[in-house]
Amino acid sequence: MNKLLKKMMVALLSLGLAQVVWADNVPDFKETLQVAEQGNAKAQFSLGKMYYEGQGVRQDYAEAVQWYRKAAEQGYAEAQFNLGNMYADGQGARQDYAQAVHWYRKAAEQGVAEAQYNLGVMYTKGEGVRQNYKIAKEWFGKACDNGFQPGCYAYRELNQAGY
What are the two backbone dihedrals, phi and then psi, of residue 128, each rounded to the nearest 5 degrees? Predict the structure, then answer.
């Protein structure tokens, strides 16, 4: 009976911990959380990524949004880009193309090529902004200048279409 009770306790404890934190990344998560709570933007971004990917913690898109936002509001470009993606896809937050554009623009203005490309896509589709192929072409051109090949392709396509 005692062995059975011990096994049940171990199993229950394991299940409880597994729901909160995966054991292999506990130290990384705890360290990152401590630094992020002190306001470090890079740590906040890393924590957002951990929640997004379920690395060291149970995957939670809403938590990822919260931590990305903290870093993004401090001007952390990668967090701004990821936050834009989350709003565009409706992950962890209600889908909101205007918010996606807002965060893509902030990252794009800091030279994040994928954000520049995504902003071009938003202008092409008219999602979160008024459709404008000329502005889309400008953002695709910037993405291309930063070596992002899909931006080069989209730029050429709009150029050939006369924009």
Answer: 80, -10
